[in-house]
Amino acid sequence: MLQWEKDRSCHQKEEYDIVKSRKTVLILIALILIGSGTAVLLSGGGNGGSDNGMTRFRTRSSSYDIRVQHAKTAEQIATSEEKEASYTVEGKEISLIVSDKGNRALLEEKGYDKYWYHEPDDPSGYRYGFVYDEKESGTDTSFVRYGDSGDILWSVPLWYDAWDYRIVSDGVIIFGVDKQPMDTPTSIDTPQNAHLTKTDPEGNTLWSCTLEHGLGREEVYQVLEEENGYAVVSRGRLSIFNLSHLSSDGRQLSHRATIVGNYGFWDLAANGDGYLVQFGSFLKHRYAEIAWTDPEGWLLDFRQYTEAGHRFYLKDMTVRGDELYCSGYFTPVPQNGSSNAKNGEVDLVLDHIFGNDLWEIDSKELTPLVQENYTAVLLVCDAQTGEPKRFLSVPGSLGKELYTDEQGQLFWYTEAVEDAYFSPATSSFTIGGASIVYRLSIGENGNVKDIMRTGEVRAFRAG
Fold it and tell me: Which pTM was predicted?
């Protein structure tokens, strides 16, 4: 196993047995297996390959040393001009008790192999995507909805280059930028407008708008549905943060632009009368920064979150009541002198491989090393101050989406690494594999009510 220390104290083990099945015989079998100490995953049927069975799990008390850097500008965080505060945060570590045989069967059912890649399932139940047709005048882009068998149910032609969308309560908002002719050089000074289009679930276009804010080259990053319209985060000339407000029918109401530096804006959440914006930079190895704004988009405060001896990769966030929930994962930071300290997610795993000349390492040996490298974390903070309060963690997993249903129930999705392989000749990643998706139901007190294996399998890429 890899050698590193996780700075945490553990005590007071608790175990929860969650059983949900339509057939009494499965319950009886489960009780027998549980009594014998056998780990078991119960299946309750489900459609489209999903697994509605609940997963047994254990929790134990734990703690992390969370570091929070406070600043008034993004530049102050980048140059470490502000002092960081350290918090010993108490929480719960969750151990999944699953059937290895059942998970392997799920991989086989999905047709997994080392060249396989599966995009995350759409939480709306629909399957959307883009179809591109390259021409000399530029790429023709269409937004499409797929049927269960992969056939295209409808298609919406777009006059601009689009690459992303957000699902809203009554449809989808698609966004992109001006189409550029093939082989035409562009730069940050090349004028480029941002465009948004809204369709209903049947592919009927409801409205379109062009953002004309005088930012030169503008790109939309995030769209957040609100009671009477939408908040839109865009970036201008690689360094300008812009927050716009659109009406429910796509009319531009207001916008506020601020120079912050060369960052991407990866997430947006409502926070009382203002907003929380996740920003960062892959080139600068910054993955867990959050900015607080007022309703108009003025940037007020910045926070950077880390953990002693680990990097924190923030993947989603949401506000419930007066608490901010941050989903992501920790990976260990190699100590000084590491031969592979490249600020990657799997530096320590690669250190082990290269240091021991394990160029032919197989999946059975590699998978536990990768599992040990990742810890999914749901960090709960005060939504106004950003101060960390408690956490949930799942070893061997990556924390991903947060979703709140119409009844206000909060769900946390995690990806448990099930298989990994070494691919040193691949340019885009070094270690690949597959993860099993679990859905954790989070109670008002922050505890886990139940855990369900969704039946979804996702590709894993790192390094």
Answer: 0.84
